[in-house]
Amino acid sequence: MNVILLSRIIGAIVLGIVGAIFGQPIFEKIQTCLNFTANPSPGLIVAVSAAVFFVIGFIITPCLTIKPIQGLKKLFKKASAQALLSGMAGLLIGFIASAITTYPLSLLPKPFGSIMPFVALVLFGYLFSILLASRNEDIVAALRSFNDRRPLRGKDGSGANARKILVDTSAIIDGRIVDIAETGFLGGSLIIPRFVLNELQFVSDSSDSLRRQRGRRGLETLTELQENKIVPITISDLDVEGVREVDDRLVILARQMNCPILTNDFNLNRVAELQGVEILNINDLANAVKVVLLPGEGFTVKIIQEGKEYSQGVGYLDDGTMVVVENGEHYMNEELYVTVTKILQTSAGRMIFAKPDNE
């Protein structure tokens, strides 16, 4: 049987009995107030009163019992564990605050002296629980920020590795994180959430051969980082409830932990910056350390393919920068010393235009 229907039946029976018991006194009270002289039989009064109360009980019982409980259940189910704990902590603080004010309020003249302590209990409990539950992310972020500012001592007793860096799946798959870590520029410990590791495993198990290869390369990168102990790595079980997308969970977690995200995902970069989260973009780092060449300077490049325009040859620097050489088609597969004529910076990267030095 439906729980709501069962509650309706029980409520209707209980209120029907109440109506039968108090039907006669209620009728006499109404008769006195309205000054009418009708005098039906007591049995009729009891029957009508019981029927009216029965109907009222059948209608309102779920609204007073089952539906409020179901509403609270849905609310608790949607709320994160962090919000629930914050609300309970706020309720406890409110009770402590009301206990402090109980004695001064009890000295008020009657009836306020007996009413105000109870009002203070309800008011403080409600206000503090709502405050902590609604601002739980900011409070946790502030506490973690304060904790992160304290020096963390490693095995050598130094305060190194105090900085924490969240790592995105794209940065792990990219593989350059190993080379960056070896340089010592990261200056902190890497935190890899469990959901990032799960996504990496999902990619490595993909039916698509290319995705599977990328996922396995990411796992090999993690293994290399752990074996070489280049930087401290922690697999964290911290998660964000109620959010499914990995990027969204990373951004929220970074805000809570007050730490940057290491990635090379352009979309994640933009979304995180809009929400005030610091981003360490591997592609930005690669662009920043590219060799700077000015018009008139010379260097050696190998021509490996024809250009789009007539007689052009194309070569590449070690960092992947494209070099377009005038009349370079005549030097195919040869090392050629060229002079820079123009540098073009586009959204796709940097292009260098040059001409053979012997021309």
Commentary on this structure:
- The structure is a single chain.
- The strands form two sheets. This protein has a six-stranded mixed β-sheet with strand order 6-10-11-9-8-7, with no helix packed on it.
- It is 56% helix and 15% strand.
- Helix 1 packs across helix 2, helix 4 packs antiparallel against helix 5 and helix 9 crosses helix 10.
- It is α/β, with parallel strands linked by helices.
- Strand 8 and strand 9 form a beta hairpin.
- It starts with a helix and ends with a strand.
- The longest helix has 32 residues.
- It folds into four domains: 65 residues; 56 residues; 136 residues, Rossmann fold; 59 residues, Nucleic acid-binding proteins (OB fold (Dihydrolipoamide Acetyltransferase, E2P)), CATH 2.40.50.
Number of DSSP E strands:
11
Percentage of residues in strands: 15-25%
Strand order of the largest sheet: 6-10-11-9-8-7
Query: Which structural class do you get from the secondary structure elements?
Result: alpha/beta
Radius of gyration: 37 Å
How many strands, what sense, and barrel or not for the largest sheet?
6 strands, mixed
- At the fourth level of CATH, the homologous superfamily of the largest domain is 5'-nuclease
Helix content: 55-70%
The number of helices is: 13
Shape: elongated
Query: What is the succession of H and E elements?
Result: HHHHHHEHHEHHEHEHEHEEEEEE
Separation of the first and last Cα atoms: 95 Å
Q: Indicate the mean pLDDT.
A: 80
